[in-house]
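Summary: Need help interpreting a holo structure output

Steps to reproduce:
1. Submit the protein chain below together with the SMILES for flavin-adenine dinucleotide.
2. Request a joint structure prediction with the ligand placed.
3. Inspect the structure token block that comes back.

Expected: a single structure record containing both the chain and the bound molecule.
Actual: see attached output.

Input attached:
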Amino acid sequence: MSMSAAEMHVAVLGAGVAGASAAHALAEHGFKVSVYDKGRIPGGRAATRTRASDHYDHGAQYFTARDPAFVQQVQSWVDCGVVALWQPRLLAIGAQSERSTPGGEARWVGLPGMNCLASSLLEGLDVRCGLRVERAQRDESGWWLEFADAAPAGPFGALLCTLPAPQAADLLADEPLGLLAGEVEFAPCWALMTEFARPLPVDFDAAFVNRGPLSWVARDASKPGRPAGERWLIHAGTPFSRAHLEADGKHVAGLLLDAFFAAIACPAQVPVKSATHRWRYALADPPLHVGALVDARRRLALGGDWCQGSRIEGAWLSGQALARQVREWRGSLA
Ligand SMILES: Cc1cc2nc3c(=O)[nH]c(=O)nc-3n(C[C@H](O)[C@H](O)[C@H](O)COP(=O)(O)OP(=O)(O)OC[C@H]3O[C@@H](n4cnc5c(N)ncnc54)[C@H](O)[C@@H]3O)c2cc1C
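--- attached output ---
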């Protein structure tokens, strides 16, 4: 006798946009879903740092929407106040410091931070944060998860893994899909969050930087719904981030601050405070374009932005592909 959707309990690893998208879609179709993430709160790389008076989107900066299904998702986020348009004064700074204006594609941000995308999709679901999955294995009863400091969970009828490819490869090293994930390279990215006492004398809010060690700079308060203050988020480019991957954060902060003032052609100022974040696994380089990797026999599927183009839109679409796969396994695909 086949099981109902509710009888099939699905484990989703990762509460980033991909995991949240999959979990939300499955719950809408009546599945029992449990989501596990090692982070303190959902969001993954669509992250917002809100310690004390800090406020920074230190991972994904904004997102665009092209696929009709994702455009519809964005509209429903807009309707419930989770997302708004960001219209910064935007520049591209070239190798010789020449300036140009990038194209006018709509740029969306979460309100009040990028981490709201995942948390809004996960509202009301069974989400277990602060749990690092250390082992995932299958026996005749289904999938079982093991954690460092918690009792094992399971059995689950299906396992959806949305960890960045190198982490998925580590966790699922004994699975053929783990080997495939191991072939996807990820580039790192150093982020510097830095606050100044007074507004910097520049005539833009954000810039793509194609000169020196940086790739992107943005004034946090130029995004809708953010607290006032002269807080700048600075991303290093891949060559710098690779070269300084194991360097000390304070040392990296000094280098990035110097590069920031050189790039924006502004006299150096001493920040009120600064912090760094190292994204060891920032973006797949290059990503796949398959939606999800599926092992139907094992009731296992891998997804995440690295399966669909390396962006928030791709992460969301990959989550939808994962959910479709589970519905197919249950024979419930409409
Ligand atoms: C610096 C940077 C800038 C970016 N800029 C943009 C941008 O401007 N626009 C854009 O569209 N995209 C951008 N991106 C990409 C965007 O952030 C990602 O495409 C998207 O957030 C990926 O979502 P995901 O769910 O696939 O993965 P993730 O968000 O990485 O989610 C995976 C989750 O798995 C969890 N996890 C990992 N290992 C374990 C474990 N063992 N146990 C439990 N949980 C685990 C992690 O904590 C994480 O929450 C940027 C990314 C970075 C890092």
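--- end attachment ---

Reviewer comment: The mean pLDDT is 95. Residues 195 and 273 are 6 Å apart (CA to CA).
Status: needs-info
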